[in-house]
Amino acid sequence: MFDQLITRLPHLKEILAKYADIAEPITVPARTILLREGEVSKRSFFIEKGCLRVWFNNNGKDVTCQFMFEGQVVSSADSFKRNIPSTFTIEAIEPSIVHVLHKRDYEAMMNELSHDNTFLQELVEIIFDRQVYYMREFVSFIRDTPQERYLNLLRERPHIAQRVPQHYIASYLGITPVHLSRIRNKVAKENS
C-alpha cells in the first residue's frame, strides 16, 4: 500500500516511508482471526501475501462479504473510525503476511497528511473506487441469479475460484455448497 502511494505521490515519500516502517509485518497461518465480530477494531491490515475473508454470523451461519488479496487494505472501517463493535470478522484463509497499522499511527499519519491536497484527492479516488465496487456487488446480488453471480465471479475475478475453498465461495454467493456444486456441474456441461 505504501509503495503504491509513494509511486503516486512521490513528494510525500519521506512521510509515507515513516509510516510504512511503523506498520508491523506479521505472519499468520490459515484460519487466524485478525478481528472478531463484536470487537472494536484498533488495527488496519495491508496484505503483502495471502487472502483474508470478511464474514459475519447470521443465526449461526457464516456469511462471506468479501475476499481481500495481495496489495489490498482491509479493516472494519466503521469500527476503526468510530470505536464501535465490528459487524464482521476478518480471517486469514491462507497462510498470510499482513502489515498491521495501529489506529494511533493511522491517526497520526492522517493528521500529518491532511494538509496535502494531492493526497486527499488520491484518498477520495480510492474510496470512490471501493464504493463503486460495493454498489455493483449489491446490485448483482439483487438482480442476478446465483449462476449469473458465479459466472461473473469466474469472468471478473477468476483468482477467487482458484484460491478460495468452495464452501467460502458458496457463502459469498449466498448459496449452499451443494447448490454451488450443481451450478459448477451445469456450467461445465454447457462449456464442454
UniProtKB/TrEMBL annotation:
**Pfam family example for this protein?**
cNMP_binding
The superkingdom of the source organism is Bacteria
Q: By its UniProt entry, which PROSITE patterns does this protein fall under?
A: CNMP_BINDING_3 (PS50042)
> InterPro entries this protein is in?
cNMP-bd_dom, cNMP-bd_dom_sf, RmlC-like_jellyroll
Cyclic nucleotide-binding domain: from which residue to which, for each copy? 13-110
Instruction: List all membrane-crossing ranges.
Output: none
| Name of the protein in question | Crp/Fnr family transcriptional regulator
Q: Which organism is it from?
A: Chitinophaga silvatica
